[in-house]
Amino acid sequence: QVQLVESGGGLAQPGGSLRLSCAASGTIFGRYVMGWYRQAPGKQRELVAQITYGGTTTYADSVKGRFTISRDNAKNTVYLQMNSLKPEDTAVYYCWSLVGIYEYWGQGTQVTVSS
Fold first, then answer.
1. What is the 3 state secondary structure string of the chain?
2. Please, what is the end-to-end C-alpha distance for the chain in angstroms?
3. Structure confidence at residue 26 as a pLDDT band (50, 70, 90)
4. pLDDT at 108
5. Which of 4, 6, 30, 69 could form a disulfide with 73 if both were Cys (CB 3.0 to 4.6 A apart)?
6. Gap between the Cα atoms of 74 and 80, Å rounded
7. Taking Cα atoms as reference points, which of 114, 113, 109, 104 lies closest to residue 93?
């Protein structure tokens, strides 16, 4: 069982920045695939970014060049740096991990981009 705890959500102005953090339990964090998904009201949950244990990253086209995913295996933590935020980035952001064949989800953190 892996527990994921997100932090760092909140309100930002268009063009602003936020950084999300996700702390994971477990002793083999370095072998987890980690990622961030988001779900806006009335929309399906979508992948935002993903990072493998080797550091390979994948991004949704809508966030490329603005968001950066990273991980600190010593701290069992994955980050999502969000820059140049847009109102359409408003959503609940979920931390996600893949450990072998098992998926785990955090509770979600709200990100609102508004002036």
1. CCCEEEECCEEECCCCCEEEEEEECCCCHHHCEEEEEEECCCCCCEEEEEECCCCCEEECCCCCCCEEEEEEHHHCEEEEEECCCCHHHCEEEEEEEEECCEEEECCCEEEEECC
2. 40
3. confident
4. 96
5. 30
6. 17
7. 109
Cα→Cα distances 102→5, 12, 33, 97, Å: 17, 33, 11, 8
Structure tokens at 14: 């268009």
